[in-house]
Each structure stands twice: as C-alpha cells, then as structure tokens.
Please model this.
Amino acid sequence: MGITDRNKLIINDLDYLKGYKKGARQKSISKAIDGVLYGILAVLSMGLVFLFLL
Model:
C-alpha cells in the first residue's frame, strides 16, 4: 500500500499533526499516571501482606 495524494494532504496538514501530537501526549501522560497508581497499589498490597505475616 502506497501513500496516495489524498493521504499526503492529511499527512501535511499541520492542524491534524498538532492534534495527533496532543493526543499522543495525553495518552503517554495517562499511561504514566496508570503506572504510578499501579505502583502505589503494589506497594500498599505488599505492606498489607507484610503486616498480616507479623
């Protein structure tokens, strides 16, 4: 599959590219927040397990 003239118009559209970059940035920020939350939950769950083992 090659790039057609119609696709070139989309690729060269600056507003489209800005929106794509913004969406990608929001996705990476949300993934980072998810990672932090999962990390906190993991630490808390390990702490609870440790408390019950005492």
In short: Helices lie at 5-11, 14-53.
